[in-house]
């Protein structure tokens, strides 16, 4: 992928501040407390520093830096004037100085910590800033704009990863069916090894191992395959595979999908029923987002979560849907954009154009089995694109297909 990471643009930030009706954006960090600020400002991730610094970008005019005498070059890569402080008293007077005349200022904080992903500024620093008569508002939507949107090369990198992951699912399911038919013993660790070898072969990278979960383990949304003693993947097992990865080039964007299958000739009725509820919740969320995007109607993350949750609750499984409906996706598997969440947090951020997110409702029956169906959605600006090849519309009996039935590209068709 061609280089797509964004350099800090003062013009872009000031334009966004003007549209938001804000006086400025105050960035602050101390020993890496705010990785969001460091990423948006394009600071060297290896050069964190040990002293507090502030960087104020006004809606108009020259930015102002406040740095410690021991680390005067900490913000040297950024435009603007520099003031150096030494004592705590000079820090306070310097901060009051750079904020003089400002009214409503954005910082990385969230009222009542509703959106903890952007709530990076400590309470004491907020008190200090407010003591100067400055009104502090959340930078949550600004953060989305500068740290969750995708460039066209980044979107293409996501598409390529999504296509490879979908093919990988086919390959893994085929190998499982092949092993079970041949009477070979297979467990979750074996299947995970297959998945990771295929990821490596396709030059995809990831932050931690995929999820391969059988039966009761699939009822744990964040199950981790143990090094030894993992469950057998055998006839009569429900198998869930959740895999996320991206290309290795800088700026590449993750894809993240989950599929389930049943290792047998006929899927039990209860598993079919639970899958269909999950699928319907997923598709209702897709329909709601698509209608909002096409109509130009603002919609927030918590509102989409409520759609999926409503379908599952109506079916009588509400207590078994124990995580948010979806999360932001970017250069990290979980990005800094709006999440589809009204359970773990009350995510009031709007779904912005050019952002990518997962839609992944689930039902988890403790000690028995769990079903999740995960797709990725991209806000084009006037529509919702579900990325990658067609998503899962029914749960298949893995051994019902003839072993020779394969797609022309070598992967198995489910």
Characterization of the model:
By secondary structure, the chain is of the alpha+beta class. The chain has 2 domains: about 10-145, 3-Layer(aba) Sandwich (Creatine Amidinohydrolase, Chain A, domain 1); about 150-385, Creatinase/methionine aminopeptidase superfamily (Creatine Amidinohydrolase). It has 9 helices and 16 strands. The strands form 4 sheets. The chain has a 6-stranded mixed sheet with strand order 4-3-2-1-5-6. Strands 7, 8, 9 and 10 form a 4-stranded antiparallel sheet that branches. A hairpin with a 5-residue loop joins strand 2 (about 55-60) and strand 3 (about 65-70). The longest helix has 30 residues, at about 150-180. The radius of gyration is 24 Å and the shape is elongated.
Offer a concise description of the structure.
The chain has 414 residues and is an alpha+beta fold. Helix content is 31%, strand content 19%.
Could you say what the CATH topology of the largest domain is called? Creatine Amidinohydrolase
Q: Strands across the major sheet, in which order?
A: 4-3-2-1-5-6
Beta-strand segment tally? 16
Helix content: 25-40%
What are the secondary-structure elements, in order, as H or E?
A: HEHEEEHEHEHHHEEEEHHEEEEEE
**What is the CA–CA distance across the termini?**
30 Å
Unreliable spans are 406-414
């Amino acid at each position: 992928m061609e280089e797509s990471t964004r350099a800090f643009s003062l013009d872009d930030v000031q334009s966004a501040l003007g549209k938001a009706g804000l006086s400025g954006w105050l960035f602050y960090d101390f020993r890496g407390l705010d990785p969001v600020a460091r990423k948006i400002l394009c600071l060297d991730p290896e050069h964190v520093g040990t002293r507090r610094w502030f960087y104020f970008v006004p809606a108009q005019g020259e930015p102002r830096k406040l740095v410690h005498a021991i680390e005067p070059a900490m913000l040297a890569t950024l435009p603007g004037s520099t003031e150096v402080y030494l004592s705590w008293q000079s820090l306070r007077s310097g901060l009051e100085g750079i904020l003089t005349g400002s009214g409503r200022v954005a910082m990385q904080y969230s009222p009542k910590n509703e959106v903890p992903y952007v709530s990076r500024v400590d309470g004491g620093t907020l008190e200090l800033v407010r003591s100067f008569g400055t009104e502090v508002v959340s930078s949550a939507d600004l953060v989305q704009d500068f740290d969750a949107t995708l460039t066209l090369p980044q979107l293409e990198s996501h598409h390529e990863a999504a296509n490879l992951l979908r093919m990988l699912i086919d390959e893994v399911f085929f190998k499982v069916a092949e092993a079970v038919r041949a009477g070979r013993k297979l467990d979750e660790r074996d299947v995970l090894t297959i998945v990771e070898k295929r990821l490596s072969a396709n030059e995809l990278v990831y932050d931690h191992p995929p999820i391969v979960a059988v039966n009761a383990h699939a009822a744990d949304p964040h199950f981790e395959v143990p090094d030894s003693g993992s469950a057998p993947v055998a006839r009569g097992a429900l198998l869930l595979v959740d895999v996320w990865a991206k290309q290795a080039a800088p700026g590449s964007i993750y894809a993240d999908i989950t599929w389930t299958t049943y290792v047998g000739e006929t899927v039990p009725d209860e598993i079919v029923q639970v899958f269909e509820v999950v699928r319907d919740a997923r598709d209702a969320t897709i329909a709601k987002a698509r209608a909002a995007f096409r109509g130009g109607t603002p919609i927030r993350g918590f509102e989409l979560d409520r759609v999926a949750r409503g379908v599952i609750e109506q079916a009588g499984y509400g207590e078994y849907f124990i995580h948010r409906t979806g999360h932001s996706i970017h250069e990290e598997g979980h990005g800094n954009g709006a999440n589809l969440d009204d359970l773990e947090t009350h995510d009031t951020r709007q779904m912005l154009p050019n952002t990518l997110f997962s839609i992944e409702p689930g039902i988890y029956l403790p000690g028995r089995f769990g079903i999740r169906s995960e797709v990725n959605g991209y806000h084009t600006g006037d529509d919702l694109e579900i990325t990658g090849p067609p998503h899962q519309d029914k749960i298949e009996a893995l051994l019902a297909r003839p072993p020779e039935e394969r797609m022309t590209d070598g992967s198995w068709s489910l």
